[in-house]
């Protein structure tokens, strides 16, 4: 009983309870508001149509543009469409081949070709595969009507009995072929961007907290702040090497040069460290609550589980301001391929610069406040 009383006298006992409660409240509030109405925003997904058939393909294209509940764009060539897909502008490309009309007329069979971007949230990939089947079925109905009208015109003169023959026409004139663009084998590979972002940020959050505690025990001043940055950079460099070794050990495909991946992960972890230490410098131990909130916000807005465009405008904006979005996007490129990492590295460096400036300002203010408190206590004494 005496031991229990001792625990209850120490503030850290209550801090632990508050942190546990904060995790529950923050995650419930953030996740349930972030994913509210996601299905209603499915119309924000982007699909490109490349029509290479000037006959029946033109009618099919018009029908798809009118009926598909997505953002549909006509592209002139597959090269341009794939280039835009690699830049994450399109989730899927529907290709109508040159021989589409000819194959329907002469062979009675043809294929629509679907290119689905695998460097994307799992929800987006699954949704696009379902859309491909739905498009195939709808086009089959259109082609069946077209064929029936054409045959009916020719048989009209032969009497009503002959027109019944067109009912035997198959409705399965159109099949479909799916190409998985920027593909990587294995279900677990799809979870790597989320896993690395989560592990890196939680590690950065805990490390920043421990370094902050140590910083209170050593000499105060700018040397204190810059010493922490040197430690942060050293750990980021080593962690990036370990990350690459683990990816190789678990046979995670890497589409970028090893040096580029190392540089990217170093910047990612340093960006997380810069963000987490900023809140601690500004708010002290209470900064951990902001870090917990930031963790939750990043997990829902990074575009790993749910496509970025299917989130509300508020969460899209939040995602654009936080490093996890660019970290996850970069790892999709590293693992699946596509565009280069330049844009993501640039945004991460901007976040580092901003958070470092705010952190050093907050640190200088805290030093000034402590000096003033010391002077006041000295005068009172």
TrEMBL record:
<feature type="transmembrane region" description="Helical">
    <location>
        <begin position="344"/>
        <end position="363"/>
    </location>
</feature>
<feature type="transmembrane region" description="Helical">
    <location>
        <begin position="286"/>
        <end position="306"/>
    </location>
</feature>
<feature type="domain" description="ABC-2 type transporter transmembrane">
    <location>
        <begin position="25"/>
        <end position="360"/>
    </location>
</feature>
<feature type="transmembrane region" description="Helical">
    <location>
        <begin position="229"/>
        <end position="247"/>
    </location>
</feature>
<keyword id="KW-1133">Transmembrane helix</keyword>
<keyword id="KW-0812">Transmembrane</keyword>
<feature type="transmembrane region" description="Helical">
    <location>
        <begin position="12"/>
        <end position="35"/>
    </location>
</feature>
<dbReference type="InterPro" id="IPR013525">
    <property type="entry name" value="ABC2_TM"/>
</dbReference>
<protein>
    <submittedName>
        <fullName>ABC transporter permease</fullName>
    </submittedName>
</protein>
<dbReference type="Pfam" id="PF12698">
    <property type="entry name" value="ABC2_membrane_3"/>
</dbReference>
<feature type="transmembrane region" description="Helical">
    <location>
        <begin position="318"/>
        <end position="338"/>
    </location>
</feature>
<feature type="transmembrane region" description="Helical">
    <location>
        <begin position="259"/>
        <end position="280"/>
    </location>
</feature>
<feature type="transmembrane region" description="Helical">
    <location>
        <begin position="187"/>
        <end position="209"/>
    </location>
</feature>
<keyword id="KW-0472">Membrane</keyword>
<dbReference type="InterPro" id="IPR051328">
    <property type="entry name" value="T7SS_ABC-Transporter"/>
</dbReference>
């Amino acid at each position: 009983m005496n031991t229990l009383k001792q625990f209850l006298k120490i503030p850290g006992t209550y801090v632990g309870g508050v942190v546990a409660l904060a995790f529950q409240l923050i995650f419930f509030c953030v996740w349930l508001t972030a994913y509210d109405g996601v299905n209603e925003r499915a119309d924000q997904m982007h699909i490109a149509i490349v029509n290479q058939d000037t006959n029946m393909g033109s009618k099919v294209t018009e029908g798809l543009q009118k009926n598909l509940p997505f953002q549909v764009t006509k592209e002139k060539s597959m090269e341009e469409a794939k280039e835009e897909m690699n830049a994450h502008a399109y989730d899927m490309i529907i290709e109508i081949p040159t021989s589409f009309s000819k194959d329907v007329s002469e062979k009675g069979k043809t294929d629509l070709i679907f290119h689905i971007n695998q460097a994307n949230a799992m929800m987006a990939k699954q949704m696009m595969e379902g859309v491909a089947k739905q498009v195939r079925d709808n086009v089959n109905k259109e082609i069946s009507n077209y064929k029936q009208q054409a045959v009916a015109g020719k048989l009209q003169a032969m009497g009503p009995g002959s027109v019944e023959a067109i009912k035997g026409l198959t409705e399965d004139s159109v099949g479909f072929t799916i190409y998985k663009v920027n593909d990587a084998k294995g279900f677990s590979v799809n979870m790597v961007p989320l896993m690395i972002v989560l592990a890196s940020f939680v590690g950065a959050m805990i490390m920043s907290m421990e370094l902050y505690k140590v910083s209170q025990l050593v000499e105060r001043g700018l040397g204190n702040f810059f010493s922490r940055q040197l430690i942060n950079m050293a750990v980021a460099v080593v962690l990036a090497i370990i990350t690459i070794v683990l990816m190789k050990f678990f046979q995670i495909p890497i589409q970028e040069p090893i040096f580029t991946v190392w540089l990217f992960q170093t910047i990612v972890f340093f960006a997380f460290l810069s963000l987490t230490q900023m809140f601690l410098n500004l708010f002290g131990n209470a900064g951990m609550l902001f870090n917990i909130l930031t963790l939750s916000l990043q997990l829902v807005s990074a575009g790993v589980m749910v496509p970025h465009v299917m989130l509300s405008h508020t969460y899209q904006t939040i995602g654009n301001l936080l490093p996890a979005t660019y970290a996850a996007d970069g790892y999709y490129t590293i693992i699946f391929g596509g565009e280069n990492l330049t844009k993501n590295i640039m945004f991460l460096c901007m976040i580092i610069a901003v958070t470092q400036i705010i952190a050093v300002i907050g640190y200088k203010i805290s030093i000034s406040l402590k000096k003033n408190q010391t002077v006041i206590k000295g005068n009172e004494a």
